[in-house]
Amino acid sequence: MLSDELLKPFEELKDCAICPRECHVNRWESTKGICRSDNSFNIASICIHKGEEPVISGPLGICNIFFTNCNLQCIYCQNHQISDVAIPRASFSIKLDKIVDEVTAILDRGINMVGFVSPSHFVPQVKIIIQAIRNKGYNPIWVYNTNSYDKVETLKSLEGSIDVYLPDFKYMDPLLSRSLSKAGDYPDVAAAAIREMYRQKGPVIHLSDGNTAESGIIIRHLVLPGQVQNSIRVLRYIAEEISPKIHISLMSQYYPTAKVMDHSFLYRELYKKEYQKVLDEMEKLGLEYGWVQSIESTANYRPDFDREHPFDQFNDNSSA
Ligand code: SF4
Q1: Could you tell me the distance, in angstroms and rounded to a whole number, from the CA of residue 91 to the centre of ligand 1?
Q2: Is 121 in the pocket of ligand 1 (CB under 6 A)?
Q3: For ligand 1, what atom is nearest to the CA of residue 32?
Q4: What's the 70 CA to ligand 1 centre distance in angstroms?
Q5: Is residue 282 part of a domain?
Q6: pTM (2 decimals)?
Q7: In this structure, is residue 261 part of a structural domain?
Q8: Average pLDDT in the 207-220 region?
Q9: 69 is a domain residue
Q10: Which residues have CB under 8 Å from 297's CB, separation 6+?
């Protein structure tokens, strides 16, 4: 039985405006918001993931909680099996007790990091899960792994609860964000969200004795085929408006899903020369902290959410 105190964050969902879509729907009664999500714990998978950046995965991996649906709906989504709201799927709603049992069973194996993946439309649930697991006497490192389509005030409400922010920074081109993610305001929203995360954490990643992150921010950027200029604009913004000392994870892992096979530029994987241009710009801007994926290892990063353990095929293969 959940206490009234524990349930408090759910109240926000009665007139939901927790993300920049500001749908103002009652998620206690319907799933009519853009994220098509209600007030339950809609979780596609709770599993150990070893394919994140080395300071996140560590030697044992991170316990990732993958929420279903998404507030952004990118047409090329690499996790489309669980994020696309147009795909009819059985309810993934699970009870809080079961979530706590599954997460603490993983923590009992020596893993000390829990990641919320695609949490922007489930922030009240995130707060409740954190509190419920803390109530059991566990105090892992909490990671917020987001598309960055987050409201600053929602992020402020997580200050003190989240230890490590892992935001994507997808676009600085509003036409691109409008056509690929139905969010022309993404560049402004994400920039403000990441600045807020940076305000909370600063440029330094604090490491444990075992070299895993205890506090900090790592910005991820996925380079899209044919969109080198967008990537360069993202990197310039980070270097010039946030900090050249911030940690960046540059990703080459884009692959075309069935949905974009006929798209004018998303139909193919990234060319080596495109990726190299982005790498060159990164160096020119003095962005020297973080990780870059090797373009040769692209296929290694594809999860399969039709499997019981979507990431079992992964090794820790990010490069410093
Ligand atoms: S979380 Fe969902 S319902 Fe709430 S504002 Fe965002 S998209 Fe709309």
Answers
A1: 18
A2: yes
A3: 3
A4: 9
A5: yes
A6: 0.92
A7: yes
A8: 95
A9: yes
A10: 253, 317
pLDDT tops 80 at residue 306:
no
Within a domain: 85: yes
Chain mean position to CA 176: 20
**Which atom belonging to ligand 1 lies closest to the Cα atom of 71?**
7
Q: Which of 225, 316, 206 is nearest to 275 (CA)?
A: 225
Block residue for tokens 């990164």: 282
Domain count, the chain: 1
Which residues form the domain of 25? 4-297
User: 122 CA distance to ligand 1 centroid (A)?
Assistant: 9
pLDDT tens digits, 264-289:
999 999 999 999 999 999 999 999 99
Nearest CA to ligand 1 atom 6: 19
Residue 34 Cα to ligand 1 midpoint, Å, equals 6
- Coarse DSSP helix, strand, coil percentages of the chain, rounded to the nearest 5 percent: 35, 15, 45
pLDDT at 262 over 90: yes
CATH of the domain at 276: 3.20.20.70
Q: Are 117 and 16 in contact (CB under 8 A)?
A: no
Comparing CA positions, the residue from 105, 120, 114, 212 lying closest to residue 157 is 120
Both tokens assigned to 17: 């405006």
Cβ of 33 less than 6 Å from ligand 1: yes
Which tens digit of pLDDT belongs to each residue from 19-58? 999 999 999 998 999 999 999 999 999 999 998 899 999 9
